[in-house]
Amino acid sequence: MIFSFVFIILIILPNISIILQFFHESNDNWAHIKEYMLNTYIMNSSLLVLVVGLLTAIIGSSLAWLISAYDFPLRGFFQWGMILPLAIPPYIGAYTYHGILNYTGVIQTTLRNQFDVTVNQQFFNIMNMPGAIFIFVICLYPYVFTITKAFLARQSTSLIENARLLGSGSWRIYFKIVLPIARASIVAGVSLVILEVLNDYGVVKYFGIQTFTTAIFQTWFGFGDLNSAIKLSGSLMFIILGLLLLERLLRGRKRFSFTTTKVKLLQPIALKGRKKWLAFGYCMFIFAIAFIIPFIQLMAWAVLTYDQLFSQEFLTIIRNTVFVAFVAATVITIMAVVISNFSRLHRGLMAKLFPKVTILGYSIPGAVIAVGIVTLVTGIDAKIYQWGWVSSYILSTSIFMLVFAYIIRYLAVAYNSVDAGFERIGTKFTEASRMLGNNVTQSFFKVDIKMIRGAIFSGFILAFIDILKELPLTLILRPFNFETLATNAFTYATNEMIHEAAIPSILIIIISAVSIYVFHYVLERV
Hints:
The chain is an all-alpha fold. Helices cover 75% and strands 1% of the residues. The chain has a two-stranded parallel sheet. The longest helix is centred in the first third of the chain and has 42 residues, at 28-69. The radius of gyration is 24 Å and the shape is globular.
């Protein structure tokens, strides 16, 4: 109880700090932003959210339906291969595609040298709003695909099979049955996509698009105005709360559950002739533009700069990345287990409130969390220094703030996995252990933790992957001279050193891809 309460307080304090300071007296910078710039931030952010959300819903749900309901060449590979684009952070996809399509890129170079064709530069210009939408869609559609596919594989089996027996065609089943019953899953996936878009800094900064996240960075680091950055963060928090309420309304009150204990998987129908190749072509096209093309280009660039792998500086960057991701993911997993176990074993308001507060951090963009943590931790540091306990600021100049931010941001990722594990085993085994004379702690270590070790491992893996790719939080809160693979790749890319950015990007992608494979295959045997 005490540990869970302390954890929750630590999570909500930075957000409370932002809300309290949001209502402080504003300055001239904020007046200028509110009059001339705020509408631009709102319009650009809204356009990105709406278009990316719509396109990812269409692509993710259609792929989930196609792979769940039909059999065609390489279907087994696409079941997990379509998730691999999640291994490519959007900011890496952004500078990779810019490098492919610009004047010195492989496409225009080939056209000029091999076919003597010179094209209009605007036709290949991706550094604009449509280009940003394209990058977000190909990198984030797996959120919708994964959640929707998991739902369709089991929950919709009887409905789809009955519709097939009644003679309904593929398109009719998709629009009349699949979309209505999978609405909650699709909306849940799109919600994650929207939160990732609002959290992004790398793509919009590289493409020069003014959004709330770039505005927070510019106001804070460009103008040195933390007060206006806090007001921008507070505004974004209120917008996100509105979006979360809208998401709850869109899900509706409809619920779909099993009507029998005999649940069977949806049996795919083998496609023949032209249809199977159309299905294969659609999946391969999406997989190619989302993963194969950027990965091959990065490998080609990496060959030109592979010698940096052997530098001491780059080895330090790798060590920093793995260390901070491992430490933060470990702490996050422990906290997730403690909070989830408390909520499982107790009844009452606090047990219901803790899970809601736990997932709050994932709903808030990294730049906003960073603002809250800086204001909170620097205030604590100042008090400790005034009291004479230390001779200098220690918390705000160490790795503490960065790890603290990771915990707040990604606790929900591990919590959802662990909570699902506890949900499967229930409380009967714990109660049986208590009847045999074990106390709560003994029952937890001897019984519970062994039964959910797979869920704990998956929570750790998911948190580790997200921290590995995290950019906004790391850019703001890292100590001096502390680089990770993400910040190293982004710094090279923004300095137009595209070839040098390939090596750290490749490492991020490979580690993430291997983790995804482990999560989906090896985890079941743990």
